[in-house]
Amino acid sequence: MNTIIRKSVLGVAGLAFAGGVFAGPATAQAVPSVESTPVAVVQADKPSVDKGKLIPHGVQGAQSHVDLSDEQVANVKAIIAATKKAGMDERAAVVSIATALQESKLENLGHLGDRNDHDSQGLFQQRPSSGWGTVEQITDPEYSTMAFLKGLKQVDGWQDMPLTKAAQTVQVSAYPDHYAQWEQQAADLVAEHWNS
Prior knowledge:
By secondary structure, this protein is mainly alpha-helical. It has eight helices and no strands. Helix 3 (70-85) crosses helix 4 (90-104), helix 4 (90-104) packs across helix 7 and helix 4 packs across helix 8 (183-193).
């Protein structure tokens, strides 16, 4: 019986020795640097957005699309952040972004002179003379989004309206149906950036 135990102990010791030889010394120099090895990061914990909430009525009409610059994407993120700050949901962000796409292509516009509708400025083309705020305020993406959302909150049943009707009720545009063409891109942008 001693022979069996001795063989077992020697076998375990031999495995430990062989494992140490093959694994190499456990020193800092033998371990490759994590910084020098590229690693793909996957955000598995990032919750997805319920796409059914983004376009509850389906898109209306032909859809438009523009490629966005870094500045325009930053404005998308500012609109989403302001929407969250206002305590509103993803659908409110879709309505806001679609409105800003129509009004300014998500560019924070200053006064455009004769090419401008009166004194309209900012992402939502809000007018100081109509009480939206000062020029400094309405050219601040957070402020202008909060002002738009304040107007949207005052629209009874906006959540159940087609996007273009909800946006038009706030904006009172000469082209009330033009907001609809941006619903798909706005929804895609919210889906991409809501949880980022």
